[in-house]
Design a protein that fits this description.
The structure holds two protein chains of two kinds. Chain A has one domain: Roll (Ubiquitin-like (UB roll)). Chain A contains two helices and three strands. Chain A has helices at 30-41, 66-70; strands spanning 5-12, 19-27, 49-54. Chain A has a three-stranded antiparallel beta sheet, with helices on one face. Chain B has one domain: Ferritin, core subunit, four-helix bundle (Ferritin), CATH 1.20.1260.10. Chain B has helices at residues 21-31, 44-63, 65-69, 78-103, 109-117, 134-155, 161-191, 194-213, 225-230, 238-256, 281-291, 295-308, 310-329; strands at 266-268, 273-275. In chain B, strands 1-2 form a two-stranded antiparallel sheet. In chain B, a hairpin with a 4-residue loop joins strand 1 (266-268) and strand 2. The radius of gyration of chain B is 21 Å and the shape is globular. The chains are: A alpha+beta, B mainly alpha. The interface between A and B is medium-sized, with 20 and 25 residues.
Chain lengths: 93, 330
């Protein structure tokens, strides 16, 4: 079965929410991947929509890229609302 | 436990000072309860131990379908049959979640399944016992799934991310299994004939000790425990989990109005736990070695399933190829 394609499965659990990665399935093609994903990941109404993507088609960040990619965001506290102090009389903003 | 006696390939647990920089950074992450993900650096033995443990766990789910499959055509009512089929389908699903988690470590599913079929990989000793009467379906759900839950609840916090996430998903579904099993027994005890009540007690008598063995050998006999605990692959020792299982199960046993086949089982006020008799470990090791009542039959069933299904897999590939050609031509 490992010769079959590995697909990553994404499920939208409710209308209005994002599709979220839930796991993977093996299948001969995308149609079978959808059927397998339905049997495996939505036995108890966990989804209203399924995406399947061949795992090989996903480009991911490497773990050693973590610092150069994500550290620059760390010292930019002024991007958060809590950075700006306003007097109490302004109320909720 | 669904994975018993998992080799770590490590003789002694290293201290932080004895580790190289990569391994130290890895261990510090584990100590800080940060999950390890597939692409992170990990010691070779951590990877191999996880592949062994997760594949053993997955194999247990898959082989675990067989004792229950025995009762699909024999279930007493349509309701019970539907419940049983839903439970068996869940077990297949649990096996697949776990194989997926295992594959993130670079293991090949076919290779690992081949190891199971050739007898080189283990699965839980419990599934080598036969399911002889309908009450066994209740006792399996209550005791076997109950023991699995005790083990799996703590594995939700295991250090490897994909394994932990598979466990969370599995635990959500597992409590249905235990409740349906217990309800089968309770129904027989409250509404059954004397013969049916005797069946319940008979099932408990046969499955009680094998269920306690599911947690694996006692701590003193578990040479791999220390390393697996340091890596947080395991979160509690075999004896701790076994005690937890007994403590929560005995009151349920009393509600059923049944007894355990253990004259030494009694509440110890001082310890705040139940004391229990000695487990016959020779039996456990024999079953693990392949000499349980059903070992040969289970593996033969698995091998036949793979062989007899070969044409279905080939046809699926041929169908997919044909469709692809038709789409390309259109």
């Amino acid at each position: 079965m490992s010769e079959w394609t590995l697909f990553e499965v994404f499920i939208r659990s409710k209308h209005g929410l994002n599709h979220k990665h839930v796991g993977s399935v093996h299948a001969t093609d995308a149609e079978m991947a959808i059927e397998n994903a339905r049997d495996l990941y939505t036995r108890r109404n966990e989804g209203v929509s399924i995406w399947v993507v061949p795992s090989a088609a996903i480009t991911a960040t490497a773990s050693d890229e973590k610092e150069p990619l994500f550290d620059p965001a760390e010292d930019k506290v002024y991007r958060h609302a809590s950075f700006y102090e306003l007097p109490d009389e302004v109320g909720h903003m | 436990m669904y994975a018993q006696q998992v080799e770590t390939g490590v003789k002694a647990v290293k201290s932080l000072a004895e580790m190289g920089p990569e391994e130290r950074a890895f261990q510090e992450k584990i100590d800080a309860e940060i999950k390890i993900e597939a692409k992170n650096w990990m010691p070779d033995n951590y990877r191999k131990t996880l592949i062994r443990q997760i594949s053993q766990h997955a194999h247990s789910e898959i082989v675990g379908m067989l004792p229950e499959g025995n009762w699909v055509t024999r279930a007493p009512t349509l309701k019970r049959k539907l419940q049983l089929m839903a439970k068996i389908q869940d077990e297949a699903g649990h096996g697949l979640y776990l194989y997926s988690a295992m594959e993130t470590l670079g293991a090949d599913r076919d290779e690992e399944i081949e190891k199971l079929h050739s007898g080189r990989a283990k699965y839980s000793s419990i599934f080598n016992y036969p399911t002889l009467n309908w009450a066994d379906m209740g006792a399996v759900g209550w005791l076997v799934d109950g023991a699995a839950i005790v083990n799996q609840v703590v594995l939700q916090r295991t250090s490897y991310g994909p394994y932990s996430r598979a466990m969370i998903r599995i635990c959500k579904e597992e409590s249905f299994h235990q409740r349906q099993g217990y309800e089968i027994l309770l129904h027989m005890m409250r509404h059954g004939t004397q013969a049916q009540k005797d069946m319940v007690q008979d099932a408990i008598n046969r499955l009680w000790w094998p269920s306690l063995m599911m947690f694996g050998p006692s701590d003193a006999e578990s040479p791999n425990s220390a390393q697996s605990m340091a890596w947080k692959i395991k979160r509690h020792t075999n004896d701790e989990l076994r005690q937890r299982f007994i403590d929560q199960t005995v009151p349920q046993l009393e509600i059923l109005g049944c007894t355990a086949p253990d004259p030494d089982l009694k509440w110890n006020e001082e310890r705040g736990h139940y004391d229990f008799g000695e487990i016959q470990w020779e039996e456990f090791y024999e079953v693990l070695k392949g000499n349980g009542p059903c070992n040969r039959e289970r593996l033969e069933t698995r091998r036949n399933a793979i062989q007899d299904g070969a044409w279905v897999r080939e046809a699926a590939v041929a169908h997919a190829n044909k469709k692809q050609k038709q789409q390309a031509a259109a």
